[in-house]
Structures are given as structure tokens and as C-alpha cells.
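Protocol step 4 of 5: obtain the predicted structure for the target chain.
Materials: sequence only (see below). No template structures provided, no constraints applied. The aim of this step is simply to have a reference model before the mutagenesis design in step 5. Sequence pasted as it appears in the construct record:
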Amino acid sequence: MKKPPLFAEKRQKILDFIMAFKAEHDGNPPTRARIPEQFQTSTSVINNDLKFLVAIGKIKSWERGSRLIEVVGGTWNPPAVSVKE
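Step 4 output (C-alpha cells):
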């Protein structure tokens, strides 16, 4: 079996991080500054990876706004809220 290229593994880890972060933070994505911190790399490297994930249809991202990352096909179900009178 052919092993996937290193860049594919790295980008999958970035996508996994975005999804996990959103799940842990009420559906809010990480900031563009938080992702490079997580992977100990530069913002420009992560921006290139995000552009690639957009190009292959894994995420939607907008250049303006630090938290504008949407996982394509992903859903977020808010936790059940109990209202007591």
C-alpha cells in the first residue's frame, strides 16, 4: 500500500484540528493565528494549507475575518439546553 505524501498528512491534521476545535468551542473555528500556534509554523505556511483545503473543497474560508472557516459537509449540533423556571 502506498503511503500518502507528508503534505497530505499535515493538511489532514490541520482539518482534524479545525473540526475538533469547532466541536469543543460551540461551533466556533480557531482563529487564523491559533492554527500556526498549534502546529508551530508560520502563518504564511498555514495560509497556503488553508488555500489548498479550499481548492479541494474540504473547507470554505474567507480572506477577511480571523474566524471565517467552515468545514464543508460538517454539521454542528448545539448541546441541549435546559431551561428551568
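Step 4 remarks: The mean pLDDT is 83. Residues 6-24 form the longest helix (19 residues).
Proceed to step 5.
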